[in-house]
Design brief:
heterodimer, A: 575 residues, alpha/beta, Rossmann fold, FAD/NAD(P)-binding domain, 4 domains, 5-stranded parallel sheet, B: 137 residues, 4-stranded parallel sheet, 5 helices, 4 strands, 17% strand, globular
Amino acid sequence: MKKNLGVYICHCGGNISDYVDVEKVRQAIEHEEGVVLAKTTMFACSDSNQKEMVEDIHQYQLDGVIVASCSPKLHLVTFRNVTETAGLNKYTYVHANIREQASWAHSDDKEGATEKAIRLVRAAISKSRYAEALYPNKFEAEKAIAVIGAGMAGMKAALSIAEKNMSVVLIEKENTVGGHVAEWGSLFMTNEKGSELVQRIHNDLLQHENISILTGTEVVSSKGSIGNFTLTLQKKHQPVDNLRETMEINVGSVVIATGFDHYIPQRGEFSYLNNENVISLPDFKKLTDQSTGKTLLYNGKEIHDIAYIYCVGSRQSEGENKYCSRFCCISTIHTAIETKKKFKGIRNFHLHRGIRTYGKQELLYDEALQNGDIFIQFHDDFPPEVSFKNKKTSLKVKDLLFSDKELLLDADLVVLVTGMLPRIDQSIGQLFKLPKGRDNFYNEIHMKLRPVETVIDGITLAGTCQGPKNISESVNSALSAATKAFSSISNGLVETEPIVAEINGNSCVWCGECLKACPFEAIEQKEIDGKIIAVVNKSVCKGCGMCAPVCVPNAIDLIGYSDKEIFSMIDALVQ
Amino acid sequence: MTSFVKKNAKILVFSTEKISDPAIDMAGLLKLHYPPTVYTITVPCSSGIKPNWILHAFEKGFDGVFIAADGTDCVFGESCTEKTGKVVAMTHEKMKQNNLDPARLRMAALCSVCSDAFVRQVRSLNEYLIKTRYSEK
């Protein structure tokens, strides 16, 4: 148990001290058991205070440090590093959040905020008394990275990693690289075609000595963890004898770039498949890219009036896809502009629910307006109705900006602006046990602070497997994932957080409940001194603690969240 | 100090480091006020909360416990919601055995930006606890 604790209470300028009486907090805790130093400080995170903390740790021979300041999301690592600089184990540092959870949350009640801050600091002191020195697990890492999926994100991630002088294996299930982008014609903001862009990057990949490209290849199993993943690969299209060629590769990290699937409308959704003049956006893009005449023809018929119905399969109020697919407003308007340039007599009617051509792409919207395209906004409760009578396709739509006035429109072609779906084939996610978000795309740890990392150490996300993105957003995400993957193994060693489950072998009676509860297969049955008990594989355990509540004899604690630590905090908070 | 306790019930919140903690922090950032007798203990995942922690909190004097669960956003996987639900069910059983009102323990899934929902939940629990535990005192 710690005996020499130092406590620092931060003013945060006035962010804390305007509402919390920090001196009162200091006086309330200075005589707590084990506290030998209690100070207030204007900015705990300042260089001068950090230096003072290091000096204090030496002078007072502190064995535990608590800083009561802002959210640990901002400065937990800062103060862990300070204590480490002064020679303490960084995991003995304890943080109390008295800004977001006291001064700001209770700025309407200064007395209440101060009382709360006192209890939060007392709870941190209690935890600190029991905080044990922990050591991250360190082991040798394989200096190679696998990128799964050779669409735009996967190709750019692979190239970026290779340029950092690291070996990359780029694995693609299909026989060609480029994903959906390879299918597309000219791309905003250049006139380069999707296929040309893909070819250019593919050439760069082929010339790089650090890159191996495996097309027509699937990942069928994965073993190991960060630093040492063993992936089993299988050639997809093999001769009839069913003897598929397999191979194993060892990598230190994996970038997932498996992309998206297009939303395919249901039969009858806006008359799709019931009316031959209703097609999806990807089909329309193919049609305009492949048509070479001066007039756009579809099924032998001249096309002049085109109606685009937006948000088909996205932003569904009743369906599963609540999210915005982000790329489709931009892609549609770009395609509409290109169609008008390429073919004679085109009139575009955009039936939308609010146009989202953010950033530089607003230029496209402006250009479409200049071109005379008509934009009609409808309410999501009153979607357009498509009918087909006397070989004529008509649309009925209530114009939101004109008090829901009903408009009738004849169209030669109706284009359903379909969005992105998570891959229907979720085998890679299942293989690596990747968590999914509410939108069913793979989930990052934190959308702002750790946007490409997953809870599985060593696995990063690139591109649209994580959620709808346009090409530039996919490339941004891919470069970020590549850098994160590289930095995690670049020095040939990996460190993992020491917070893992711990099993008391004396109490364990092996009932198997912990094994069933563990989502990471980190629990193993083992015979020790003639007794069968559960043991934790520390390199696989993620520290979720799911095994602990199901243990009937209470033999499992999570390091850092043991019963004695939690009980002592509860006791301090309720005082 | 006396009025401080009477006005508000003591509520212990178990929140999660990566999902509900940011929501609770954001409630502070947005100055969405809630009773100052609401205290948070952070854990990695809501499905790792032990029933005996909750019973200990009641035994020591907390009026209510609120689990700010990860829900489907949990970074440790989809099974979190179901497992946290089981923790609550197990604890409710034990509370009944100890003659504790099970409604003193509540759970709701909070995403990392669910600040409003967090404040609504703890205010509602506070009102319930004041009504059931302090209205006649």
